[in-house]
Amino acid sequence: MSTDSAHPDTAAHHGHHGPSRRKAGGCVKTMLRSSGLRPTRQRVALAEILYGHGHRHLSAEQLHDEAQAADVPVSLATIYNTLHQFTEAGLLREVAVDGTKTYFDTNVDDHHHFYVEGANEVFDIPGTAVTLGKLPEPPEGMEIVRVDVVVRLRPKQA
Ligand SMILES: [Zn+2]
Question: Thinking of the domain 26-153, which architecture would CATH place it in?
Answer without folding.
Answer: Orthogonal Bundle (1.10)
